[in-house]
Amino acid sequence: MTTSNVDASLNKSGTDMDRLRAALEAQARALGFDCIGITASGTIENAGKHFLEFIASGGHGDMNWLAAQPERRIDPRGLWQDVRSVIMLGVNYGPGQDPLAILQQRTRAAISVYAQGDDYHDLIKKRLKALARWLVATVPSEVKVFVDTAAVMEKPLAQTAGLGWQGKHTNLVSREFGSWLFLGAIYTTLELPRDDAEIDHCGSCQACLDICPTAAFPAPYKLDARRCISYLTIENKGPIPQEFRKAIGNRIYGCDDCLAACPWNKFAQEGREAKLAARDELRAPTLVELARLDDAAFRALFTKSPLKRIGRDRFLRNVLIAIGNSGDAALAEEARRLLDDSSPLVRGAAVWALAQLLSDEAFTAIKTNAIADERDESVREEWELAS
Questions:
Q1: Which residues on neighbouring strands pair with residue 91, listed in sequence order?
Q2: Could you give the CA distance from residue 39 to residue 31 in angstroms, rounded to a whole number?
Q3: Does the reported pTM lie above 0.85?
């Protein structure tokens, strides 16, 4: 990698932090980052308190990794005691069309915008590592990079670094990019010039709260993950609770409703092109084609995709819930075929889907033989509840 005259000057002196900051920002944008901000390591005390309250309430559900070693999350120095500055970076992934329009196409699958392309963890981490290498080569220092997989509270740090603020839906909102930013962090031992924290611009708006299909927000700025469709379709490993199945509609991976409702998104859509492209085959696939995926086909379709991590069984569980909500009786045959699947999770969801699509008489006729052969208690319970 060649260095500019500015870089060479910095290598010689290593003292002009303002010029380093300017060069760092230019390099970040050259690598594809849309925004950058810098904060001190000990700036998120209030966010840490809120996080501990969230864990104590059980709002994290089965995401036990969130509750593990909370001291490493509530202060960057708990993760790395030598960190002096935190460089926060964002990449715009705003969609080019209304992400909620797919919800009206009930025989097609709605996949969250962020998951329609390759896994952002891999894409963003490559850029972070490249920027970190440039920084170390320019001014000798130590660095660590993080993308949503370590004990880092990215959103509070991004707010103190001036990239945006945590909205009432608990996600970051930017005045330039709305609710559509991937975040990454570089921890460094350098004392870099800080940015001012962003203030809350939500005002009286609560569009993100009002649109939530499952009432996952008990109050503004508070999320109960156990009611969130993103949690239910991704993190939840068991059957989706009965009370949420209808509300899920055709969302088979994640949910964009609260993000898409944010009025600040209009600024993200004015001449700002998303830097991470969606794959055509994941924009609006049919439920039929997804229901027919065996394990090999599932892995092939979702190579490099975040969907791959939930595995075929949980994926088909979600697809079957969408089939049950489709209102299309022709899809009942897909659910019926999956009554013979090797996974109890899939069979149980197939039972529910059939109950939604068939007449009582037709459903009972299938149940009589199927329940007699079923040995899994959870699936037998689905049959009984669907009666």
A1: 182
A2: 21
A3: yes
pLDDT one-digit tens code per residue, 124-154: 999 999 999 999 999 999 999 998 766 578 9
In one-letter notation, the amino acid at residue 32 is G
The residue among 349, 111, 353 whose CA lies nearest residue 251 is 111
Tokens 């970040």 correspond to what residue?
Answer: 28
Where do the domains of the chain lie, and which CATH numbers do they carry? 5-285 (no CATH), 286-387 (1.25.10)
Asked if 182 contacts 146 with a C-beta cutoff of 8 angstroms, the reply is: no
207-246 pLDDT tens trace: 999 999 999 999 999 999 999 999 999 999 999 999 999 9
Q: Cα–Cα distance between 360 and 354 in angstroms, integer? A: 10
Question: Would you name the residues annotated as active-site residues?
Answer: 148
Dmax of the chain from CA atoms? 83
Three-state secondary-structure class, residue 261: coil
Instruction: Provide the β-strand partners of residue 222.
Output: 219
pLDDT digits (tens, 9 = 90+) for 39-79: 998 766 565 566 666 666 666 567 665 666 666 666 788 78
Instruction: Name the residue among 154, 202, 185, 163 with its Cα closest to residue 44.
Output: 154
What element of type H or E holds 165?
strand 165-166
